[in-house]
Every structure is written in structure tokens, then in C-alpha cells.
């Protein structure tokens, strides 16, 4: 389990042009693109599945969602998978 966590408002916020990747995605893109979250599915009160892609490769994140004492949500990466395209970048 990865110990990265992120507050709810940052999960859907667009990525800054200065960063190469979304803070929850630990994979590096193979080409000059960024991994971005495409779809978010709430499974229940605790678990979230996200699909991400850089236009060539794609993957999924399983996130554990926690409601903090100050009524904000935080997300922790529980597992992630990357599917690599056979196309060359």
C-alpha cells in the first residue's frame, strides 16, 4: 500500500503544467505526456476506482477514501495497475 494521500478537492483538479504526473500515480509516462485521471467510480463509502491514461498507456488506481475530523476527504493509494500499449511512443 502506497502512503500517498491527497485531499478531495485535489483529486479532480487539473494538473499544473510544471508537474509531469498526477500526484497519486507513481508511474512515469513513456512519452512527453502526462497521466491524467479520466474516470472516477465510487464503489462505496470507503473505496474508489480511477482510470488514468496518457493517451498511449492506461491504468487503474484503487483508492481508500477517509473522512477526516475536519470533514475533508483524503485518498490513499491501495493498489495500481499499468497496461502498456504495444505501440512505440
In words, what does this structure look like?
The protein is elongated. The longest helix is centred in the first third of the chain and has 4 residues, at 8-11. The chain is mostly beta strands. 4% of the residues lie in helices and 43% in strands. The protein has one helix and five strands, in the order E-H-E-E-E-E. The chain has a five-stranded antiparallel beta sheet with strand order 1-5-4-3-2. The protein has one helix spanning 8-11; strands spanning 5-7, 36-42, 47-53, 58-67, 73-83.
Strand order of the largest sheet: 1-5-4-3-2
Instruction: State the secondary-structure class.
Output: mainly beta
Tell me the strand percentage band: 35-45%
For the termini, the CA-CA separation is 30 Å
Largest β-sheet summary: 5 strands, antiparallel
Amino acid at each position: 500500500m502506497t502512503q500517498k494521500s491527497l485531499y478531495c478537492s485535489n483529486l479532480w483538479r487539473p494538473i499544473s503544467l510544471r508537474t509531469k504526473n498526477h500526484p497519486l500515480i507513481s508511474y512515469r509516462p513513456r512519452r512527453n505526456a502526462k497521466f491524467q485521471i479520466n474516470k472516477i467510480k465510487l464503489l462505496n463509502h470507503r473505496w474508489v476506482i480511477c482510470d488514468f491514461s496518457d493517451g498511449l498507456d492506461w491504468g487503474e488506481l484503487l483508492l481508500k477514501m477517509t473522512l477526516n475530523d475536519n470533514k475533508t476527504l483524503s485518498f490513499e493509494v491501495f493498489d495500481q495497475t499499468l497496461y502498456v500499449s504495444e505501440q512505440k511512443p
